Amino acid sequence: MNPFVKTILLAAITICLTILLIYFPDEALAASLRGLNMWAEVVFPSLLPFFITAELLLAFGVVKFLGVLFEPIMRPLFNVPGAGSFGWMMGMASGYPTGAKIAARLREEKQLTQIEAERLVSFTNNSSPLFIFGAISVGLFHNAALGALLAAAHYGSNMVVGILMRFYKIREEKPIINKAKKKNNSPILIQAVKQMHRTRSRDPRPLGEVLGDAVLQSIKTLVMVGGFIILFSVIVQLLHLVNFTILFSKLFEGIFFLLGIPGTLAVPLFSGLFEITLGATLISEITTESLLPKVILVSFILGFNGFSIQAQVASILAKTDIRFSPYVFARVLHGIIASILTIIFYKPLYLNYQTTESEIPVATQPTDTFFSYILQQLTNIGPFITILFLWVGFLLFIKYRKNES
């Protein structure tokens, strides 16, 4: 795009957004509060421990240790170094945008090449089990059995995406891979321990500083994440108020007709392209003859991530030389494959476990599960944890500023 045209376009979008904020102040405030509550109650307290742990494991050389151990698995499967296994596991456990954060840190430490980091980002930004089982299956659909189907489709398709993305720019990577190969006859466990020790020895920071840096960096990232959640919550609400959502969703109705999906799901899907939680909520509220179309669309938006999460990932990657376009391509691919796997797994993982002949669960009362319990506890104590660590981050920031001056 021409730089001048791009400038005019961005300025026009910002002006329109400003006008809408002035015209709909109450609705914008309500949307902001919804986004803020979601971030303070669930997102911040659930992601903070994983972010801090990731920073500490990187500093102490544990990621190097895992890298050596998992090199024989990660390289053939995904064509990335063994260190990528850390991003993959943490991404599945904690959810987005943890995978992008870890990939960016590994790239900063030169543990990945640019292309390897782009491959890693493409399949390490998953939805967490807490969100799939607790928020969506139990919280929205009131059906714990649906969690197994969504999780199998989501994580299975994500692995397929990782395998497919191993061929991304493979010709450009061959010289680097061949050059990096070295003969080492010692046991792999001994190699891993030595690498971990070398990494820790090269970091001169004392333990207290390492911990402080981990907390401060994690809080900074999560504050940025919170800003994007609030921003996109407001944008989706404003688009709905000016009927842009309904207008644009008409494009989906023709495609839905060909696929046999009810046209009433077009508006929820469009909302889900911006923000996953909002889209999944609207989809769950639509009444359909079969549950399958709703689950297909939820699987798609989980794989697509939504523009809100994509913006978070773009902000994290902007500090590195990791390109954003492979991640976007992988998100579309993930959404499509997840939808296909949902159709394949629907009967064996869902219908066969139902006690009634109807595809729509008769009992709509929430079922207590481990993940729904955690989600409930986070909602209760999450704001306290968020406020506490924001104060900790503020104090650490003041302390570091005094030390620099």
UniProtKB/TrEMBL annotation:
Q: Does the keyword Transferase apply?
A: no
Q: Which residues cross the membrane?
A: 46-70, 130-155, 222-248, 255-283, 295-316, 328-346, 381-398
| One Pfam family it belongs to | Gate
Q: Where is each Nucleoside transporter/FeoB GTPase Gate domain found?
A: 42-138, 223-318
Q: What are the entry keywords?
A: Membrane, Transmembrane, Transmembrane helix
* UniProt superkingdom: Bacteria
Key word Heme present: no
What protein name is recorded for this chain?
Answer: Sporulation integral membrane protein YlbJ
Name its species.
Oceanobacillus indicireducens
